[in-house]
Amino acid sequence: MRKISIYDTTLRDGAQTEGISYSVNDKVLVARKLDELGVHFVEGGWPGSNPKDLEFFQKVKKIKFKNSKIVAFGSTRRKNKRASQDPSVKALVAAGVKYVTIFGKSWDLHVKDVLKASLDENLKMIADTVKFLKSKKMTVFYDAEHFFDGYKNNPEYALKTLKAAEAAGASVIILCDTNGGTLTSDVIKIVGEVKANINTELGIHTHNDNAMAVANSVAAVEAGCIQVQGTINGYGERCGNADLCSIIPCLELKLGMYCLGNKKLRELTEVSRYVSEVSNMKQQDNQPFVGSSAFAHKAGVHINAMLKTTRSYEQISPESVGNKRRFLASELAGKTSILFKAKELAYDLTKNDKNTKKLHKLIQKLEYEGYQFEAAEASFELLIKKTLKQYKKFFELEGFRVMVEKRQDNKLISEATIKINVNNTREHTASEGDGPVNALDSALRKALQDFYPELATMHLSDFKVRVLDSKAGTAAKVRVFIESQDEKSSWWTVGVSENIIEASWQALVDSIEYKLLKERERKK
Asked: Is the torsion defined by CA of 323, 324, 328, 329 positive or negative?
């Protein structure tokens, strides 16, 4: 079984994603999580480029990692300067790690037009830097930047840059598709030609500008590379880097190679979502292998087949990557999906049950009006309870009013007033909030708090609005999704109306009633 080493560059390349800004503590958290996953190499950053990365390397010196080797990243020395005198190269040594990755130019265009150096001087820069770092007892990985573009433009010179790194003692030479525009067929061809000329082990580092980063990485491994560089969730500059969350399952499950092992592979989904949280980036639902929709089935024909054999519409078992299968309730899914969802929620329904038929027609009607239950499973469960007459209202609305006032100082004030009846007791409360929905939520909670103190443990964590018919302009229907959570779980609810406040109210009431119903069932 071929062993492939996984090299993660989320903390350096991934940090270049638009919208991501890691603190030093964030970087430490991610590094620890990657170590738990079993990633072989974790690139911590460029210690010579900024104080944050320098502090990171100082902190990780005190941490004992079980699986991962922390790697410092930097460039070859500057032209006409010895590596031993270059401040950025010396910073790599000062980082105090045993592994270092340096990048150098392999495209003659960059040497002449960017570095403004001679081709011969560039070769000396590569060799001198690798040799100096080796003299400091460091293991050196050499990233051949823009290699595929350089090779296509001037193969003879591109190979010379690799041979300079090889002769100086680089342990692995990584071929980089820095612009992310190389086709997979070219990757296979070029890696093969390089292997015929270079004895040092090869690695691959691809970007996703032509949406082929994962395919190119997998193809490069098949062609002989033994190290794969990439990021969790494909984070990276422009269109991102190769997504390790797709590469690792492809190598392990499709090609039978060893990267992390089956046990660690089952932690992949959890790690993907953890990194997205630390990065403050929304997890992509349709992300292969680890996305929440990766094993979600909506069409009735698909669900029917899946209930007979899961291989019919799934390439692998979701459990192998730590994900889970989901059957979505919608007008496309038919009764089979409703039965499956009901069973998941511990409701005993049959295909010919009158309640199943009633529920199916109701879902079709509501989805025609704009509701969407596959993304709002709490609202769907409430729908089942209402259909089976297992639902009891916790309060009756008499009315609410929401006001938004803009004052002379440009400050916006949102205030909600609400009247409800709880257990034959009338409550009339008002509250301000950060926007009308937050004000309405606060007013409702204030009215309910004495009756249902358990609501103090839940809060709204996300709010999404979708215009359903843009042609209708301001009269268009909107669909509102609200995510709520407590100390144990999170859930989504949905509301639809031509009025955004009314749609928000529907979703808000569902979220609170779902919480109260769960608390009532827990106490039984």
From this structure: negative
- Pairwise CA distance, residues 461 & 501, whole Å: 18
User: Is the domain of 233 the same as that of 329?
Assistant: no
Distance CA 485, CA 301 (A): 33
Listed residue (43, 45, 44, 42) closest to 68, CA to CA: 42
- Average pLDDT of span 328-347: 62
At 255 the pLDDT is: 96
Residues 9 and 152 reside in one and the same domain? yes
pLDDT at residue 281 in the model = 85
List all residues 6 or more positions away from 385 whose beta carbon is below 8 Å from its beta carbon.
391, 517
Q: What's the whole-number average pLDDT of the chain?
A: 89
Question: Quick one: pLDDT band at residue 335, thresholds 50, 70, 90?
Answer: low
Instruction: Answer yes or no: is 415 within a domain.
Output: yes
Whole-number pLDDT of residue 452: 93
Residue 518 φ then ψ, to 5°: -65, -40
In contact, 237 and 13? CB cutoff 8 Å? yes
Give every strand in the sheet of 396-406, ordered side by side: 396-406, 412-422, 425-433
Say if residue 326 is in the same domain as residue 456: no
What range defines the domain where residue 426 resides?
Answer: 396-523
- 136-172 pLDDT, tens digit each: 999 999 999 999 999 999 999 999 999 999 999 999 9
The residue type of 403 is M
- Cβ pair 126, 142 in contact under 8 A: yes
Domain boundary among 231, 252, 278: 278
What does the pLDDT look like over 206-253, one tens digit per residue? 999 999 999 999 999 999 999 999 999 999 999 999 999 999 999 999
Answer with the residue of higher pLDDT: 317 or 5: 5
Q: What single-letter amino acid sits at 10?
A: T
> Could you say which of 369, 388, 422 is where a domain stops?
369
Contact assessment for residue 224 and residue 190, using Cβ atoms and an 8 Å cutoff: no
User: Is position 391 within any domain?
Assistant: no
Residue 378 resides in a domain: no
> Are both 248 and 318 inside the same structural domain?
no
pLDDT tens column, 83-113:
999 999 999 999 999 999 999 999 999 999 9
Answer for the pair 433, 400: CB distance below 8 angstroms, yes or no: no
DSSP sequence for 316-356? S-GGGGT---EE--STTTHHHHHHHHHHHTT----TT-HHH
* Residue 64, in any domain of the structure: yes
Q: Could you tell me if 92 and 98 are in contact, meaning their C-beta atoms sit under 8 angstroms apart?
A: no
388-407 exposure pattern, b = at least 16 Cβ within 10 A, e = fewer: beeeeebbeeeebebeeeee
Question: Is the domain of 219 the same as that of 345?
Answer: no
